[in-house]
């Protein structure tokens, strides 16, 4: 039987700022962006409260395909199939710190659900 365990995360939210394409020294390209996911809960008084979580996201695989960076603009509603990635480093004071990143492994897993204009914002036109 094959291993059925997977590191899969589904996030639905809005792009926080226009995506940035970064060309690395090794010839690879990565696209970086932030994603806001709202969560709602009722407080002790029964009032609905919104909490927004911000996620640092990266696209590594097929990051040049179809100019995807041009479509990941602020306010766009997307659904991402991603993987959790943990990066750790040691600070100058010797304290070990771990950062959680969400890595979109293939752009086929980015579904565009609504444009920024659907949220009452103006759509930024490409150059």
Low-confidence stretches: 120-127
Shape call: globular
Please name the fourth-level CATH homologous superfamily: Nucleic acid-binding proteins
Major sheet details: 5 strands, mixed, barrel
Strand content: over 45%
Percent range of helical residues = under 10%
- For this structure, the CATH topology is OB fold (Dihydrolipoamide Acetyltransferase, E2P)
Mean pLDDT over the full residue set? 78
What structural class results from the helix and strand content?
Answer: mainly beta
Number of helices: 0
Cα-to-Cα separation, first versus last residue: 51 Å
**How many individual β-strands?**
7
CATH architecture verdict: Beta Barrel
CATH level 1 class label: Mainly Beta
Q: Helix and strand succession?
A: EEEEEEE
Strand order, sheet with most strands: 1-3-4-6-5
**Total number of distinct structural domains:** 1
Radius of gyration: 17 Å
């Amino acid at each position: 039987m094959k291993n059925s365990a997977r590191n899969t995360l589904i996030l639905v939210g809005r792009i926080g700022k226009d995506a940035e394409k970064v060309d690395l020294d090794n010839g690879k390209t990565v696209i970086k962006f932030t994603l806001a996911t709202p969560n709602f809960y009722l407080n002790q008084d029964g009032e609905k409260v919104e909490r927004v979580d911000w996620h640092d996201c990266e696209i590594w695989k097929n990051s040049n395909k179809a100019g995807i960076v041009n479509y990941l603009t602020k306010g766009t509603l997307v659904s991402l199939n991603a993987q959790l990635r943990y990066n750790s480093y040691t600070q100058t004071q010797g304290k070990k710190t771990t950062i959680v990143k969400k890595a979109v492994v293939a752009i086929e897993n980015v579904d565009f659900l609504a444009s920024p204009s659907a949220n009452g914002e103006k759509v930024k036109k490409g150059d």
